[in-house]
Design brief:
38% of the residues lie in helices and 23% in strands. With 271 residues, the chain is an alpha/beta fold. The protein has two domains: 113 residues, D-Maltodextrin-Binding Protein, domain 2 (3-Layer(aba) Sandwich); 97 residues, Periplasmic binding protein-like II (D-Maltodextrin-Binding Protein, domain 2, 3-Layer(aba) Sandwich), CATH 3.40.190.10. A hairpin with a 5-residue loop joins β2 and β3. This is Bifunctional lytic transglycosylase/amino acid ABC transporter substrate-binding protein. It comes from Stutzerimonas decontaminans.
Length: 271
């Protein structure tokens, strides 16, 4: 072997070690970069949660405003649960029925847990698939008075109504029939309406069964006789003018189904 050749071999050894070490360093640097980069991802601003504006009118005990201006009642709680399951937050807003319908028509309210099939809302809303509850619209009369034949026995009589409520075409036709010459007496809440009927300040009361039952119990009255005029299914009603309206109603339907499949109790009081 010629002089100097071992030197060449010895000189190449560090190069070989360097070649072997460099890939390890590269992997180490990559691992460090991944670890150091992780907090940057974690610290990124989260996507803000979509908040649904929920409109409702006072319908105790199903949904109502408590002393702290918070929406309460089993229908309000169900709406919160389903919206949360669908990934939405909620903001409740109590409104008289006329203003609520106007808000659905202009999109300032996204959702109303209310009556399906309102003709005046048909062009402006999408209805969820699921029936959340059923409520009855009844014509009440005092105990001991005969059940009226409708419509003829209403002619010239007085009828107590809740101010701000709207009804279906067949009921509105009855109220507006000039031949019946009904005297319409409006009051602000169900308790005063039942009290008016009890005190003979009106011949009949047109009202929904669930709130009347609550009012009757508070007044410690016996059951009131009635005739059912309509049965109303309650659904999620989404404004067509809300952002991503079709996606919202689909998400709510799927969330309701997911909760039901998981065995959640979604039942609400029904008449």
């Amino acid at each position: 072997m010629a002089h100097g050749q071992p030197g060449i071999a010895c000189a190449s050894l560090p190069e070989q070690r360097k070649a072997a070490i460099d890939p390890l360093k590269a992997l180490t640097y990559l691992a460090l970069a991944a670890v150091l980069g992780a907090p940057a991802v974690a610290m990124a601003d989260p996507v803000p949660q979509r908040i649904l504006n929920i409109g409702y009118y006072e319908f105790a005990p199903a949904i109502y405003t408590d002393a702290h201006s918070t929406a309460r009642g089993e229908l309000a709680e169900l709406t919160r649960r389903v919206a949360r399951q669908a990934g939405y937050g909620v903001r409740f807003r109590p409104l008289p029925s006329a203003r609520l319908y106007a808000a659905l028509e202009n999109g300032s309210i996204d959702l109303w847990p209310g009556a399906r099939g309102k003709p005046e809302l048909a062009a402006h809303t999408l209805e969820g698939r699921h029936t959340l509850s059923q409520i009855n619209l009844n014509l009440y009369h005092r105990t001991g008075t005969p059940a009226p034949r409708i419509p003829q026995d209403l002619a010239g009589r007085s009828l107590i109504l809740i101010g701000g409520y709207s009804y279906w075409p067949n009921v509105n036709a009855l109220l507006d029939d000039p031949q019946l010459n009904l005297r319409l007496l409006r009051t602000s809440n169900h308790l005063s309406a039942v009290e008016m009927l009890r005190r003979n300040r009106g011949d009949f009361l047109l009202d929904y069964q669930i709130p009347v039952e609550q009012a009757r119990q508070r007044l410690q009255m016996d059951a009131l006789p009635y005739q059912r005029l309509a049965q109303v299914p309650i659904h999620f009603i989404v404004s067509r003018h809300a952002r991503d309206a079709e996606a919202v109603v689909t998400a709510l339907d799927e969330a309701y189904e997911a909760l039901r499949t998981a065995g959640e109790d979604l039942s609400l009081p029904s008449d």
